[in-house]
Design goal:
The protein has 9 helices and 13 strands. The chain is an alpha/beta fold. The chain folds into 3 domains: 74 residues, Diphthamide synthesis DPH1/DPH2 domain 1 (Rossmann fold, 3-Layer(aba) Sandwich); 106 residues, Rossmann fold (3-Layer(aba) Sandwich); 106 residues, Rossmann fold (3-Layer(aba) Sandwich), CATH 3.40.50.11860. Strand 8 and strand 9 form a beta hairpin. Helix 5 crosses helix 9. It starts with a strand and ends with a helix.
């Protein structure tokens, strides 16, 4: 077996296992380094650390493949599955008794049990639909930026059942159908419709506030799975075409405190993770996704006409 220089990368919830896994690879004769950077998902590969360390390979734990381009350093993805007792999903049944067909989705941590989940709901009389998103690696898997596992079958279903931990992923599902979230940690069921509506209102509020803004900072992330310079250049051109000031701001970590130190921008546009817009209150000014920016342009152009 070839001995390698390896960089291990973990999401925050798995970093406590880093030393144990480091010992495993060292026992096989490899030279091992641990990435200490924050990791926000499979889009966030520690490529800079790997290049500086001259690593032969990155082993990225807790997610599956997202970045499709060649990064110059091989990346091995190691999923971290978490088993649930599928019979616990009985808690969902009273909430969906009036619905005949459902879309079923989950996260990478539970995707290995999707077949069992499907069988459970089918046994209880439901017609179950799943699909594969554009960016997600597996059928039935929802990412914060890709709910195609649900949107692709939305027309065929009466409701959505999402199995996972935390509201981040189910709030990515916007299909105009009830979304029931089974929290695998709390073992409770939540209809996320009210929270999703609050999020939609916040986004509309941000667009409304942006109508009065004159100077826009366009955020570009250098994270491999979030880098989108073409979108940023398009946004800059379109903003300037409408008589607004615009500049492109690039960083690996886009933090409100650092970015706001420019002290000149009235609003921001993110071409990085679209879910940054969920936290616009932390920025103290409107933070728009590219989709929201297009809505802003439509309003501006209509008002001008």
């Amino acid at each position: 077996m070839k001995k390698m220089r390896i960089l291990l990368q973990f999401p925050e919830g798995l970093k406590q296992k880093a030393l144990e896994l480091s010992r495993k690879y060292e026992s096989e004769g490899h030279e091992v380094f641990l990435s200490a950077s924050a990791c926000y998902g499979a889009c966030d590969i520690a490529i800079d650390e790997a290049r500086w360390l001259k690593a032969d390979k990155i082993i990225h734990f807790g997610h599956n493949r997202f970045v499709k381009t060649d990064l110059g350093v091989p990346v091995e993805y190691v999923e971290y599955g978490i088993d649930i007792d599928v019979n616990e999903l009985a808690a969902v049944l009273p909430h969906i008794k009036q619905y005949r067909s459902i879309a079923l989705a989950t996260t990478v941590q539970h995707i290995h049990q999707l077949g069992e989940m499907r069988a459970f709901f089918e046994k209880n009389g439901k017609k179950v639909f799943t699909a594969k998103g554009e960016r997600a690696d597996k059928e039935g898997q929802v990412l914060g930026c890709d709910a195609g596992a649900v949107t692709k079958v939305a027309k065929d279903v009466d409701a959505v059942v999402f199995v996972g931990n935390g509201l981040f992923h189910p709030l990515a599902i916007e299909v105009g159908k009830p979304v029931f979230f089974y929290d695998t940690s709390a073992k409770k069921v939540q209809d996320v419709s009210a929270e999703a509506e609050r999020l939609r209102k916040r986004r509309k509020g941000a667009i409304a506030k942006a109508l009065t803004c004159r100077r826009f900072g366009i955020l570009v992330s250098t994270k491999p799975g979030q880098f989108n310079l073409a979108q940023a250049e398009w946004a800059k051109k379109e903003l300037r075409k409408r008589g607004l000031e615009a500049a492109i701001l690039a960083a690996n970590e886009l933090e409100p405190l650092s970015v706001n130190n420019f002290m000149v921008f009235d609003a921001y546009v993110t071409t990085a993770c679209p879910r940054m817009a969920d936290d616009s209150e932390e920025w103290g000014r409107p933070l728009l996704t590219v989709t929201m920016l297009k809505e802003l342009f439509a309003i501006m152009d209509a008002n001008k006409g």
